[in-house]
Amino acid sequence: MKQxxxxxxxxxxxxxxxxxxxxxxxxxxxxxxxxDCLDSLLDAVEGVGRQFAGRYExxxxxxxxxxxxxxxxxxxxxxxxxxxxxxVGQLFGQRLGAPVWVAxxxxxAANAEAWSGAxxxxxxxxxxxxxxGTGGGIVLDRRIWMGSNFAAGELSFLPTxxxxxxxxxxxxxxxxxxxxxxxxxxxxxxxxxxxxxxxxIPADGLDGVQFFAAYDAGEPExxxxxxxxxxMTAAGIYAIQSVLDLERYAIGGGISARPEVTDVIRRxxxxxxxxxxxxxxxxxxxxxxxYGNDANLLGALRFALHGGV
Length: 309
What we know:
By secondary structure, the protein is an alpha/beta fold. Helices cover about 40% and strands about 20% of the residues. The chain has 10 helices and 13 strands. The protein has helices at about 40-50, 90-95, 105-115, 170, 175-180, 190-200, 210-215, 220-245, 260-275, 295-305; strands spanning about 5-10, 15-20, 25-30, 60-65, 65-70, 75, 85, 100-105, 125-130, 135-140, 145, 250, 285-290. The strands form 3 sheets. It has a 5-stranded mixed β-sheet, with helices on both faces. The chain has a 5-stranded mixed β-sheet with strand order 11-10-9-12-13.
């Protein structure tokens, strides 16, 4: 069976795996992500390639940013500020000695779910990844929608407050301005921020484990924060639905491991549709993603298998 070397390049770690064409994960590991310069990133990728020399025929890469998958160019690099209009496919290929396919991480997550996960049996759906921000990928007619500028699915930037947005360039971007975007609400970061505000404590240092420990202990502030989070997430899904009319939304990210997360989103979406009974678009299903930490690897592999589409 043909084997692939697959990378999931994140802001903290580069995860990698040797995978079969059927999606089987043969070997895996991770290494710290270099944030200083492109050469360091290329060196790290090449180092992984040496571990698997002679054992792979093609390479697939998931990474943040606005990625032109067909051309192998990262128009932007997300948290990798040194990536801009960079021919990453060509550069990785030179270091790894094999053809390389590169795609945006949110689109890779959606690709995995569309292949054999929570979206496998629908024609149109979306993945929403609740992390530091709000990642995502959209599936239309069983294909990942790239968008005219390779930016479809950048859900973090869905506005939640419209008034005054045209004047933001005059005021500068600060914390209060960022609260105008969905990522400040429909994310793990947003959930922790609301909890911290209700408790009157700093949000720095809080994580999902601490939050759900408080929730399980019956803290009313934790229950109220999860309720607020669910309402804002459901409201965003309603807004997206008014444009795309999808069948199903699959919720991912670390906090989605808790069933209460999808439960509260589903319940709040039910409330919205009950209150707006004249909505012309369908109420979609809300489910949890099937794949967790391996979703980006699996989705990147599928892009390679299908020639970047």
